[in-house]
TrEMBL record:
<dbReference type="Pfam" id="PF01494">
    <property type="entry name" value="FAD_binding_3"/>
</dbReference>
<dbReference type="InterPro" id="IPR002938">
    <property type="entry name" value="FAD-bd"/>
</dbReference>
<dbReference type="InterPro" id="IPR050631">
    <property type="entry name" value="PheA/TfdB_FAD_monoxygenase"/>
</dbReference>
<dbReference type="InterPro" id="IPR036188">
    <property type="entry name" value="FAD/NAD-bd_sf"/>
</dbReference>
<protein>
    <submittedName>
        <fullName>4-hydroxybenzoate 3-monooxygenase</fullName>
    </submittedName>
</protein>
<feature type="domain" description="FAD-binding">
    <location>
        <begin position="2"/>
        <end position="339"/>
    </location>
</feature>
<keyword id="KW-0560">Oxidoreductase</keyword>
Amino acid sequence: VRTRVAIVGAGPAGLLLSHLLADAGIESVVVDQRTREQIESTIRAGILEQGTVEVLDSLGEHSRARTVGHRHDGIEMRFAGEGHRIDFPSLVGRSVWLYPQHEVLKDLIAARLAGGQDLRFGITVNGIEDAGTERPRVIATDADGQPLVIEADFVVGADGSRSVARPVVTGSAFGGYFREYPFAWFGILTEAPPSADELIYSNSPDGFALISQRSATVQRMYFQCDPDADTAAYSEAQLWEELQKRVPGTTLKEGPIFQRDVLRFRSFVAHELRKGRVAIVGDAAHTVPPTGAKGMNLAVADVILLNLALQALLLEGDERRIDDFADAARRRIWKAQHFSWWMTSMLHVTADATDFDRMRQLGELRSIVESEAGQTYLAEAYTGWPLATA
Ligand code: DHB
């Protein structure tokens, strides 16, 4: 197969890139190891920055973010038994949307298939060759076990945290800046009405909890747990007890719990984001801990930059933007890394925290919620920094 851009990974990054390239008249092939059903049903994050929603508007009717999703104008920061609302529009004139990632993926897949995109599922990529030439190639095996070679002008690795493209770009599977955290999130989905109108990020002596939502009848909630926690080890009553004791002052509306998962916390940025005519974006390039919901939004920001760079390269033969891509992407990546680390460290409780650490943390939270400057920083980062437009 011959195409202009070979995209490995049909997640938010890969699919959005294929859409933006197609809008500019650049043909691509998108491959993914998973099935369409797997991609459309895996539960991931739920918050879209305003800029992400605006980019998805370019899908036309296919984007349901504004119709099925919900605009949220604020969040509650809860600690010491009291809630403090951060009002986004009055602080920064922006909002976020609650719209689950797998719904974004359904929209993107529907739009790409309607646009005639060559989109292939069940493809295992074994390697990427000739990154240093103008004809890089993706070497793969299709769903029937037949060999597939995609020859392109450029290859993009949008293939997630276990990226096949990353070692091609960095020279090793783990070539990056890395940080681990001594905790994880226990996530649940429950069939219950919302417990609050907006998300609650709660710091308590028993640990962190996040009260999020999915719809009028389904809610998403998380509580801080041990990274090795066993999802089967808790009864439903124990899960509600864990959640409830971490949001003192709010009474949670309980219902049957129909999904449980443990989310590992990691911060990672690959040392290199491009080698010759291969680039990595999204989770292939970086991972953030989930607090603050930056993961998918950061993938979208990478793709916007890469799309502009590929248009310059492939339509005009101008290499300056692709040469600048990694530096430009890194400026936002490290701001998002800082924000995700900061929200995480400000809200979670570590086993080795001293009394001093605990009191300092409350001082940090107060210095945000009791200050317009503090609230404004949080609102600006949460709703998203401006995206590249040209
Ligand atoms: C959700 C996840 C997050 O990490 C976050 O900060 C907010 C919301 C969610 O899944 O709803």
